[in-house]
């Protein structure tokens, strides 16, 4: 599995998603609760960027209709979204945040 640099750890503010594009895949990188997560940036309900939503309790909320997705599993907590959003493995090396979009967790 190929890890590529998504951004610098020092650029990430807590609970403020950062949208990056890795190998053509839009990814939202989120630092929260002392960990860094990578989740596909597109809501599973419609074509909406999750990085524009809010982060709370390890969930990212879709701003359009309010479904929240677990940053660890990608599963939605409630309607209208019913399908999970892919999440990706993250590695931290020094100040580099590395993400593998070739493997979903
Ligand atoms: S577009 Fe995300 S919940 Fe509807």
UniProtKB/TrEMBL annotation:
Pfam families: Rieske. It comes from Streptomyces finlayi. Its EC number is 1.14.12.19. The keyword Metal-binding applies. Keywords: 2Fe-2S, Dioxygenase, Iron, Iron-sulfur, Metal-binding, Oxidoreductase. SUPFAM superfamilies: ISP domain. This is Bifunctional 3-phenylpropionate/cinnamic acid dioxygenase ferredoxin subunit. One of its GO terms (molecular function) is monooxygenase activity. Residues 4-99 form the Rieske domain.
